[in-house]
Amino acid sequence: MRFLRIVNRTRDRTLGSRVGLADQWWQRARGFLGRAEPGPGEGLLLSPCRAVHMIGMKFALDVILLDRQGRVVALHPELGPGRRTAWLARARYALEVPAGTIRETDTREGDLVAWLPAEDTRGESGLRDSASVDGSRDGGAALPHGMERS
To answer: Contact at 8 Å (CB) between 15 and 100?
Structure first.
């Protein structure tokens, strides 16, 4: 699994420093099932994803739904075991992070989120507007290498 650093560019806050990219159906289906509760900075970015369920989970997560440009379209703080989000047609990604991350980072609907490889050592100021990981300039979120827009 590839790992990413996820940054809320609107608020200049890191949402996760080691977030796994779940871009295969089996990775998305498993999510955090059977895994330990994520620690600070850990999480999963599910792609594509328009809704999340917590069936079988033993702990709560913060879930942030993002559109294809990386704009926050829905927030689900402390989504508990057995719960689920609504299906959202405009969502393209779901970011699952430790419960409390939304509150701690003051993340809000409409914020712009970007991601880059976790091993990238640039500071948050190294994330330039409209620059994606692969160098294209399309005004959207930085996409991990190997991901394509649809």
So the answer is: no
